[in-house]
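Example protein as discussed:

>
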Amino acid sequence: MTNKKQSVGILGAGISGLSAAYKLSQNNINITVYEKDNQVGGAIKTNSKNGWLVEEGPNTLMVKSEAVWDLLRDLNLITSSIEASKTAKKRFIVKNGQPTPLPMSLGSFLTTNLFSVKAKFRLLKEPFISKSNKEDESIADFITRRLGSEPLDYGVNPFVSGIYAGDPKTLSVKHTFEPLWKMEQQHGSLLKGLFKRDRKNDSPKRALLSFKNGNQQLPQTIADNFRKSIQTETNIQSVVKNDNKWIVNGQQNNSAFSEEHDVILSTLPAHLLPTIFEDSIFKPLNSLSYAPLSVVALGFSDEQIGHPLDGFGMLIPEAENRKTLGVLFSSSLFPDRAPESHHLLTCFVGGARNPDLAGISKKGLQDIVLSEISELLNITGKPVFSHFRFWPKTIPQYEVGYDHILNQITEIENLKTGLFIDGNFRGGVSVPDCILSGFETAEKIQTFLNGQ
C-alpha cells in the first residue's frame, strides 16, 4: 500500500489536473493542487447574470465512456445533468449565404444542395482509392484524396473550425480524426470501414450533456472532494529536482513559498513548461501552436429573430468568406440559458482562420458578428444582452508532425523521474478526453509510487 507521506504536486486545476487529483485522492494519496486563477476549472467557465447563462469555454460534453458516466454518478451529478434537446440535432452549414441543414440520412444526402451531383457521384469512387502509405497527412489532403474537394469545403472544414478552431490544411488527420484514419489503415476505405464497424449493443450510452448551473458545475463538484488540497491564486515560478524530491517555488498572497513533493504532475499549457522547468529539453514544446479565440454571446428577444433556431447551431465554412466561425443556438440546446421569450446565441471569432481578429475590441467583435449573423438568421435590431471572452491561447493544434511533440513529452518523462505531463495537448482536447487522460495519468502515478 502506498505510503501516505508520499505526496503529489499537481500544477493546474483544469479538468485534466482535477480528474487526476480526484483519482489520487480516492486512493489516499496526498495531493496539493496549485492554480493561478481564483477558481478551478481552467477553460471551463460559466457566467450567469440576470437569467443569461453563458459558457465561456466548452459548451457541451459528449459522454460516451463508462468511466465518465461512473464519475458523474460518483459525484451525484446525474440528476443535475441536462441532455441536449432532441430538437437541436439539426446542424446548419452556411452555403451561398443560406443556413442549410447537414444531411443526416442517405435520403437527405441525395437531396441536399450542400453538395453538387458531381460531388455525390465522386463519393462512389472512394472504396477504389488506394490507401496512403504516409505516416501522417493533413485533414485537407486526406479528405480531398478520398472524398473530393466539396466534402472538405462544406463538410469537414466548418467542423474543424467548430471543434479545434483550426485549419484542416495543417491539422493531422491521424491525431484529430483518428477513427477516419484508422478506417483507411484497417479497411483501405472509409465506406468499407463504416459497413464493417462493430456495432455492439452493450456499448455505453452516448449523450450530449451540460449541467443545470452550467459546465463549470463539473470541475467545482470534483474539487469539492479535496477542496483543502487546492491552493488557488498561486503563481508557480519554478519547479526543480533536488535529490529525489521535486521543489515547487512560487508566490501566494504576496509571499514566496517553497514546497517539496515526491511526484509532480503538470497539466499546464505546453508553452508554459519551458519557463517553469528551466531545462532545454522542454524547449521543443514551444513549437506547439495554440489558436486564439473570442467568444461573443449575444441575446435577443423572440421577435428579433426570424430563423426558428431549430438546431444545434450554424457553422460557416471558410469558402463563404465570412469572419464568424460559427454560432451555437445555446438556448435551443439547453433550457434556462436565456430569460423567457429570449434567445442566446454563442458566436466564435478568430481561430487559425482569422487569428488577428480574435483579439480586437469588444465593440469591433460585436459589430462583425452582428452584421454577419443578422443576415444569416434574419435578426433585426441590437442585442439586448452581450458577453465576451477572449482566449489568447485556447485549443492546441495537433498539426502534421505532432508525433514530434508526443515523443518529446515521453522523452522528458523518461529522463525526469517522478515528473508526469498531461493536459489537452496530449490525449484529446474535449472535456471527456481530458477526464480519461487524467484518470490514466493518475494510475501511472500510483504505479510509480507503489514501486518506490
In short: Residues 431-450 form the longest helix (20 residues). The chain has 15 helices and 20 strands. The domain at 7-39+214-288+399-450 is CATH 3.50.50.60 (FAD/NAD(P)-binding domain). Residues 30 and 184 are 45 Å apart (CA to CA).
